[in-house]
Amino acid sequence: MAKNIVVIGAQWGDEGKGKIVDWLAEECAGVVRFQGGHNAGHTLVVNGKKTVLRLIPSGILHENLHCYIGSGVVVSPEALLGEIDELTAAGVKNVAGRLHIAPTCPMILPYHIALDHAREASKGAGKIGTTGRGIGPAYEDKVSRRAIRLGDLADAKLLADKLRANLEVYNVQLQHLHDAEPVQFDDVMAKINAFKERILPMLADVSSSLHDTIQRGERLLFEGAQGTLLDIDYGTYPFVTSSNCLAGAASAGAGVPPQALDYVLGIVKAYTTRVGSGPFPTELFDDTGKGLAERGNEFGSVTGRARRCGWFDAAALKRAIQINGISGLCITKLDVMDGIPEIKICTGYTLPDGSTTDILPFGSDAVAGCTPIYETLPGWKESTFGVQSFDQLPENAKGYLQRIEALCGAPIAIVSTGPDRVETIVLQHPFTN
Ligand code: GDP
Ligand code: IMO
Ligand code: MG
Description:
Plays an important role in the de novo pathway of purine nucleotide biosynthesis. Catalyzes the first committed step in the biosynthesis of AMP from IMP. The protein is α/β, with parallel strands linked by helices. It has twelve helices and 17 strands. Helix 3 (110-123) crosses helix 4 (135-143) and helix 3 packs parallel to helix 5. The site of guanosine-5'-diphosphate (GDP) has 22 residues, from helix 1 and strand 3.
């Protein structure tokens, strides 16, 4: 019986992780974010009311549940406090009291955001298309061992010394490499002093709390951000984010042993989307692609940018299954495929040398050289929106799902047919399998 589930995106992000985490959280004691930052945008819909979460784990709407932010997450205190205030104003109880954050999380400060923007502007057409939230520069500070971490807020002298040293590095880059305005020490310090007293009480030994929860036999959910194909090592590098978004990152990023992770739930849309630059083999530039974008409301929940849309890519999912060890799949947004006369699935690629492969290669250049090989399936005219049982799906929708399962080699555990919690079909519940 699975106790602890890791939920990860198996495509390029925005697969619907937030909806599914919120739905599964009903039966859990805690939800943990383990990587990424407020580049994530996770949408929850409960009784028609929409909530978009960026840093706070997608379990917060469940009143007695505890939410954790592990050391693998880069935290913008200003964004976090803004989100807490929004949720509180919307009537969510005791948000700050239920949020426990590792003091070892690197902080995102204004100079990270300034450099993220300056770099993208300098790159022009070659830009990554980042969310502009300072994520990349904050992770750079972490690996170069100069990050200012949340725990440093408790030591005013250490904080000031680190900030001064970091601004020397950043302002040289901003002014001399990017012709941008320098960031002033006093301005950053004023911001830190404004948020410090609200952040410090939320800092806690997240690892020990998770350990204790596991010892008590209670369930935990580990909530991934972004998606496998945006992973810093295995994604379409350099058009990726700056963290590992794989299931394996949950252990290091939350501070729990790998044996504590019982089940990996891979979330995939019934088609594919990507926001930002980089190769996308099954991208559609025709009316079918436009139809998916319109029906799927494919606009980024963080930046509002239009998401690029394309056919389902089984060869990409095969790679995601391989490197995440996906125990079960959740196929979301099946309803968005309603009414398409013929549906294509990418089963592999022809490579530039004429050979073929059935699994996505690594890195941007290799993926850019992939020409999809498609098989065509009949679509369905009926609406699947809100359907809650597999038996009630049109035969061709069932056939589409079964073909995906056969091509990828992982069982489908859940199908999502609408944005609301209840618009969900359960085939094999992750907690009982
Ligand atoms: P995340 O980043 O993986 O949590 O996904 P996002 O929240 O960024 O994007 C998913 C979008 O699809 C959100 O607007 C959800 O409300 C919506 N959504 C999720 N599941 C379904 C579904 O099954 N059908 C439809 N039509 N919309 C869905
Ligand atoms: P969720 O958790 C989709 C993309 C950006 C850009 C690249 C790098 O909602 O699925 P970054 O700001 O991280 O340095 O940008 O990664 N990206 C996402 N795309 N969903 C996300 O998160 C994303 N987070 C980052 O668009 O292409
Ligand atoms: Mg999202």
